[in-house]
Structure formats: C-alpha cells, structure tokens
Protein: TetR family transcriptional regulator
Organism: Amycolatopsis thermoflava
Amino acid sequence: MVRPGGRSARVQESVHAAVRALEAEAGREALTVPLIAARAGVTPSTIYRRWGDLHELLSDVAVERLRPDSPPEDHGSLGADLAAWAEQFLEEMSAQPGRAYIRDALLGDDTNAGRCSAYAADQISVILARAAQRGEAAPEAETVLDHVVAPMMYRILFRPDGLSPTYARRLVEELLG
Amino acid sequence: MVRPGGRSARVQESVHAAVRALEAEAGREALTVPLIAARAGVTPSTIYRRWGDLHELLSDVAVERLRPDSPPEDHGSLGADLAAWAEQFLEEMSAQPGRAYIRDALLGDDTNAGRCSAYAADQISVILARAAQRGEAAPEAETVLDHVVAPMMYRILFRPDGLSPTYARRLVEELLG
C-alpha cells in the first residue's frame, strides 16, 4: 500500500531502524515511544498515528525481521527442496531471536501473524511451482502448511524440548512418502 | 508442588479469582498488581514474589482457564472420540476468549505454554487408552499432536479465516485414514 521511496516508506524505515538500534544498545525493556521517536527523528504522535502503540510497532518490526530475504534454494527435487527449507525454517524460528519475533508478531494485530504465515506460504509456493515445472507430483501449499509448517511452529511455541533437524526432515518425508 | 488446601493454594485461588473478577468488571487494561492484591486480600509483594510480574500472573490465570474440566466424551470409537474432541477444541480455542488465553499463555514463562499443550496431550491420551481397551489400532499421542492439534493451533494463531468444524474432522479422518 505504501509507495516505495515516499515519505511513508521513509518514516517506516527510520522508525524500524531506531527500534533495532535501541533494542541492541539498551535492551527490549528500555524501549519507549518517545525514545524511538527521538532516535528516528519523528514526533511521537507520528508513531502513535501510524502504529497505535508500542506493542503494535514492535510486532510490525518483528514481522519485518521474519521476512525471508531470498527464495528457497533449488536442490533439484521437491523432496530435497522442502527438506532443506523446513530444516532452515525450524533452525531460525526455534532460535532465541526467532522465537522472540514470533511472540512479538502474535502480540500485534491479526494481520501481523498472517504476514508471517504468508511468508512461509510464499516460500512453499515457489518450491511447489518448481516441482510442477520438473513434472513432479506435488501437494497443495495448504497441505504443506498443515503437515510441515504447523507441527514445527506448534512445537516451537508449546513444546520446544528436543527439536532437531531430523524432526523437520521426518515431517517432509511423511508428507511426500 | 503446592499442597492442596494449604496457604499457597489459598493465595493462588484468591489472586486468580481477583484477576477474573476485575477483568470482568473493569477490563483487561485496568489490571494492575496493587489493584489485584487489594481485591485478593494479599500484599503486592506476595504477588511479585510468587509470579514475578503482571504478565506472568495473567499468563498463569489464562493457562488455568484453558484446563479441561472433564475427560473427553466416549462416543464408542477412536474416530468418533477424536473427531468430537478436535471439533470442541477448535471451537473453544478459536473463539475470542480462547484466543486471548492462548496469547496470554504464550506471553509467560515457557512452562505455561507447555502446560497448555500437556492438557491437550492428556485428553488425547485418555482417548487413545480407551481405543486400546476396545482393541482398536491407534496412533501415538505425539502423532495426534502433530497432525490434528498443531494444524488447528497454527491456523487459530496465524490464519484464522475460514476455520470450521469440517476442518477439525478432516484432520482426524486424514490421520486415521
């Protein structure tokens, strides 16, 4: 919705950068809207008008940090592509920063959690489109979400003990097997 | 760990009751530790000592509200028991109060989210033990968590649009094949 390079995009980038910098310097607990505004060179009311409150802003920043910065790697087959993607997803999301970003994302507006899930769905769709181009039979993206992404995310949030790359690979094998 | 009926149990009960009453009367945003302490007839330091902060207390109260108050109903077969349980779980957890309790539970210590998941695992274990007694073949509880509970919880948290009892039943049917 936001015109790239416009004022709105510049405000977003400077406020996000201020949150990341202040969090790294002073820690999460020290963040306040006036502090972030001063660092970003905007007024607090600009932040309140755009994000509503600190929680929504932190949630928005967290979602941006969860955005994948490249398409999934091509390993030559659906099984290999999906296993590699699932392993990497589990590793990133179960590490301490990943878990903190997911929690923050869940604290904001529903659309923030939806954006996280859309990132995963988009990556999976790239993998499935590649499989179709190779002539491989492939499940629906929704099915991959249910059988691979959902179990990983459920365990990351609710039962994190003992998660391993083997678990991610096993979910993919069971789905494709 | 807490002796039932002991002072510790009485403090927990009165503090939890105070949170529920104040939340119903004044709303979530109005809750503060001093207000809750006054209503519960304890000192604020009792609350800080036991729960750490308001978030942890709200998380603990939310988990208690998610505790099932009866074993799953017996419908005579594994498929019927699991489908009925999954439908009810989805209905409760996707309604506004259920979603708020899950979010609160996730905000607290990791053990709080673990307790939520243990409630589901315990209910599923009852259903699976019944199936074993009837001589029915049954999956592992962990498998039911991965293939039925996890997809429902993932969608409740990240993609809540269009959830229906049909979805819960379909997950059970796909698992039991």
